[in-house]
Amino acid sequence: MKINTDPQKIEEILTRSVQTIYPTKEALGELLSSGRQLRIFMGIDPTADYVHLGHTTNYLILERLHQLGHKIIVLVGDFTAMIGDPSDKTSARTQLNREDVLKNLESFKDQIGKVLNFEDKENPIEFRFNSEWLANLNFEKLIDLASNFTVQQMLERDMFEKRLKENKPLYVQEFFYPLMQGYDSVELNVDLEIGGNDQTFNMLAGRTLAKRYLNKEKLVMATTLLTNPVTGEKLMSKSLGTGVSLKETADNMFGKTMTLADEGIIQVFIDCTRLPMAEIEEKKKRLETGENPRDIKLELAHEIVRMYHGEDEAKTAQANWEKTFSQKEMPTDMLEIKPTSYDIVTVLLDAKLVETKSEAKRAIEQKGVKINEKVITDPQTQTKPGDIIQKGKRFFARVK
Fold first, then answer.
1. In a domain, 330, yes or no
2. Which of 69, 138, 203, 299 fits 3 for a cystine, CB–CB 3.0-4.6 Å?
3. Helix/strand/coil for 140
4. Per residue in 315-372, pLDDT tens?
5. What is the Cα 146 distance to its own chain's centre?
6. pLDDT digits over 10-57, tens only?
7. Which domain holds residue 23?
8. pTM (two decimals)
9. Same domain, 303 and 383
10. 339 and 298 in one domain?
C-alpha cells in the first residue's frame, strides 16, 4: 500500500482537534513521514444506541489517516461496556448487561460508516469487538496485567481522587477498565491509539502494556472534547443524554445544532466538519468583527446536515427552521406518525421526540409540549388524528 506523506496533510493530522500526543508530536510526525503503513485504532463503548457529533472528531481524524493509506481499526468495546468506563465520572457507571449492549450495537456500524468508508476494498477498515479476547481472559492473565500498575497510579485519576474526598463509593471493577482497554492495544498490535482526552489514562495504560508484552512503542493521540469554552461543560455526552446524534432526521439535526452555545460554533466547525482550516479561520474573523453568531451557526447547521443527509436535505431543513423561527410558522414538511396509542406520552415516544416515558412526562410537566399550539400539562391527555404535536421550540409531528 503506497503511503501519502504530504507534509500539509500530516500537519493537519498532528494539529487539528489534537490536545496532546505521547510521547511527542515530533515522534508521530516522523512515523507519518516514514512511508510505513501504521496500524491505528480507536475504541468506542456502546453505552447508548447512537453515535453523536462529539465522537466524529476522532472518526474524521481516522478518515484523514485512512486517506493517507494507513490501516484503520474501529474497535467496539462490547465487553468493556459491561464494566463501565469511569472516565470523567463522579460516580460509578451503571453496568450494562449483554442484552443492553447488543441492542445498542444494532446500528453502530451504519452510523460510523457515515464518516468512514467501510466499502474500501484496497485498504479495508477493520471493525472489531473486544469481546473476541476479553471474554476469554483467564484470572491468571488478569493478575499478570494488574501487576503492571500500582494502586497509587490508579488513585491518581482525578475522578477517583474526587470520589474519595467526597466519601463516594469506588468499586474494584472500575480499576479493571484501564487494564482491559490497555490490553486491546496488545491484541491489536497497534502503532497508534486515538481517543478523547478523557481517555488519556486508559490509552497510556495500553502504551505501558504494549511495551511490556510487545516490546514496542505505541503512540497515543489525545483529542479535544467538544466543550463550551465559557462554562467548560461538554456539548456532547452519551452519559448525560445530550448531543446531536447521527441518527437524527435532517430537521432535528439542524434544529439541535442551532441550539448549541454561540461560544462553541468555531470549535464544532474544527472538530466536526471537513471544511479547510483556512475557511474556518475566516468564519472566526467574521465573528470577531461583530457578525451575528446566528448567521455563522446557520452555516454550521447546514454543513452538518449536508455531511449526513446531502445538500438537498440541508436546504430543506434550513428552510423549515427559518420558517419556524424567523417567520413563526410551522414547518410544512413535518413528520407524520400513526401512533400505537393516542395518549400524548405514547405519541411523543412513537414520534421519537423523546427517548423515554419519564422524559415525556417531564417535558409535559415543564410546559414544553403543545397540541395545536396549546400548552398541555396532563400526561394523560389524548390526541386525535390531525393534531400537531410540538415539543420545545423546534420538534413537530402530525398525528395520523
1. no
2. 69
3. helix
4. 999 999 888 776 666 676 678 889 999 999 999 999 989 888 888 998 899 888 999 8
5. 29
6. 999 999 999 999 999 999 999 999 999 999 999 988 777 778 898 899
7. 7-223
8. 0.79
9. no
10. no
